[in-house]
Structures are given as C-alpha cells and as structure tokens.
C-alpha cells in the first residue's frame, strides 16, 4: 500500500439511525461535531437517515422515509398530470 494516502484518525464512532433510534458503533474517520454517551463512554455521533435496521431490503417492510418532502411534491405533480389527462 502507498504511504500517506489513508487517514490516520480512525476511531470508534457511533452512528444513529434517526428513523428508529438504533445506534451502532464502528471504526470510522468521519468528522463530526455531535457526541453521544453510551455506557459511560463518549463517542463522536453521526446521524444517518437509513441503516440496515430500517432499510426495506433488510427488513422486508415497505417503509416510506421522506425527509425532504420529495414524495409529496411528486404526488402533487402526478395528480395534476392525471387531471390534465382526463
């Protein structure tokens, strides 16, 4: 491997799935400002919208996660399109 191209700041980081509050800890070099305390130990915190505990592929459940309102915008446009078509 080439020297100097890999990050040096690998550390334990907590990732929190915001859709179901599941937290898992793994090594990462991601930068973050938030922290979380788990079992008396403080970890850097990264908030994610979807993880393996909430993704439909892994859970087998169809669950709509829309944080930006994109689905509503699409449905409104689709509704107007269908009304024009009639």
From TrEMBL:
UniProt keyword list: Ribonucleoprotein, Ribosomal protein
GO MF term list: structural constituent of ribosome
GO cellular component terms given for this protein: ribonucleoprotein complex; ribosome
Family annotation (PROSITE patterns): RIBOSOMAL_L31
SUPFAM superfamilies in the record: L28p-like
GO biological process, any: translation
Transmembrane segments: none
InterPro entries: Ribosomal_bL28/bL31-like_sf (IPR034704), Ribosomal_bL31 (IPR002150), Ribosomal_bL31_B (IPR027493), Ribosomal_bL31_sf (IPR042105)
Family, per entry: Belongs to the bacterial ribosomal protein bL31 family. Type B subfamily.
Subunit and partners: Part of the 50S ribosomal subunit.
PANTHER family named in the record: 50S RIBOSOMAL PROTEIN L31, CHLOROPLASTIC, LARGE RIBOSOMAL SUBUNIT PROTEIN BL31C
Protein name: 50S ribosomal protein L31
């Amino acid at each position: 491997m080439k020297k100097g191209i890999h990050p040096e700041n690998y550390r334990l980081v907590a990732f929190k799935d915001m859709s179901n509050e599941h937290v898992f800890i793994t090594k990462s070099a991601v930068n973050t400002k938030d922290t979380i305390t788990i079992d008396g130990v403080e970890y850097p915190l990264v908030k994610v919208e979807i993880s393996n505990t909430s993704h439909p592929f892994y859970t087998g459940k169809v669950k709509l996660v829309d944080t930006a309102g994109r689905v509503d915008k699409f449905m409104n446009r689709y509704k107007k399109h269908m009304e024009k078509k009639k």
